[in-house]
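Appendix C reproduces, verbatim, an entry submitted by the partner laboratory led by Prof. M.T., so that reviewers can inspect both the input and the predicted structure.
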Amino acid sequence: MANIDLIDDSQGFVLNDPSEYRPEVKDKSKYRDFRIHNIPDYVEKTYTNMHTSQTLEFSTQKLKDWCKLDKAEMNIMDALDMLNELVDESDPDADFPNSYHAYQTAEGIRKHHPDKDWFHLVGLIHDLGKVMAIWGEPQWAVVGDTFPVGCCPAPSIVFGIDSFKDNPDMLDEKLASELGIYDEHCGLDNVVMSWGHDEYLYRVLKGNNCKIPEEGLYMIRFHSFYPWHTGGDYEYLCNNKDTEMKAWVNEFNQFDLYTKSPDFPDVEEIKPYYEALIEKYIPGKLKW
């Protein structure tokens, strides 16, 4: 991957080559290996259900239902504690509770970007939308890679286009076309994504007036959109803002992906640091 030259002029921050952040515990080539013979059956099942059931109608309805923010009121640490109960059924790289992954990601970012405390917090909270699974939403509507609905799936999506063969939208000529219901370069903000934890947490944070910078909110909203930020697809839907923000999403992605390992940080030791960040950027109880 080429060096990233994006600069935050207000703080003189350069996003560098992410290769230095990869741990020695696991070779890069062994992450996100979705070949059928290498993954647990439940990973394949999760994606099969997702690609069959995530239609434009389904995702639009979930957006309406969950974004009422009427499910609960709790603070960030309460939500993080809930993820102690969740193992992501779409992830071939992590078979431990999602809360551990949150601290691993945050600490990886903190080590390499010590002056960006909001970035550390993004690492900690980026998967909190997965509380939907604790509240009864099936994991195929919560976890895994996201993709636009309302248009044809792209070749780089996990398990390929053929995995959408039973999706009802593929029987609709317009919804199965490249642009689908969208205009060229309409911007990702105007695209309906498959429903999942990215969009839900983004809506929770926006709805509760959090103080995380736009770059951080963008990381949260699109970090699972692998067909775009890693696969190189869907550029025809992107506007200038999306293009600029893509470098930030890719910078975050290095920590989200390559910090997964069986070595866990001492949560009790570092927890006060993150509690202070929560108080700074997302204090009090939030509506979920």
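Confidence is low (pLDDT under 50) at residues 1-37. Additional entries are available on request from the coordinating office.
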